[in-house]
Structures are given as structure tokens and as C-alpha cells.
Amino acid sequence: MPTRDHDVSSLSDSALQRARRDLAASLALARPDSPVRVPVLAQIDAIDTEHAERERTARATLRICSCGLASDDDAFFDGHLFERPGHEERDLSRYACR
Ligand SMILES: [Zn+2]
Questions:
Q1: What's the 72 CA to ligand 1 centre distance in angstroms?
Q2: Which residues, by Cβ under 5 Å, contact ligand 1, an ion?
Q3: What is the pLDDT of residue 3?
Q4: What average pLDDT does the structure give for the chain?
Q5: 33 and 12 housed in the same domain
Q6: Residues 17 and 39 grouped into a single domain
Q7: How many domains does the chain have?
Q8: CB neighbours of residue 66 within 10 Å
Q9: At what angle do helices 37-59 and 13-29 cross, to 10 degrees?
């Protein structure tokens, strides 16, 4: 089914931006009631989702617990610390690039 049509994960960042610009341009040219808007909007949505995911991944930092558990998922890691009061997050600031 057409879900794979919107698979934009293989595109580079610049190709993604270019595709989004082209789609926005065709959207601007389409009449408000034109059926062509639907797939174009779906594509733009897919690109925006992919872009947001890349930003999130770029920002993600690995956190490590005193027990050795490591995760870049903040919600999961905070949950782990909450459920196990004896555990504490290791201070990794000395490894951070500045
Ligand atoms: Zn732990």
C-alpha cells in the first residue's frame, strides 16, 4: 500500500529541503479545491516528520546509570531512575565536547 510512497528517509538533508520547496511550490500553484493537494500535503507531512526525527536524533545524548544501563531515551531513563531509587546517573560532563 502507498505508505512507502512517503518514505523519505533515504534522502539527504539537502534533497529533503529541495523536495519540500518543490512541494510547497506546487501547493501554491494548486487551486484550494484541487485534489492534488492531498498527496502533496501528505508528502510535506512525511518530510516534516523525517526532519523532526533527524533533529531529535542529532540532539539525543546518551545517559548512563550507575548500574551500567545506557539510553538516549530521556523518558525511559528517567523512569529507570525513578523505579530504582538506589541508582544514579553517571556524570559524563568530562567527556562532553565543547
Ligand atoms: Zn540503573
A1: 14
A2: 65, 67, 69, 87
A3: 47
A4: 88
A5: yes
A6: yes
A7: 2
A8: 12
A9: 150
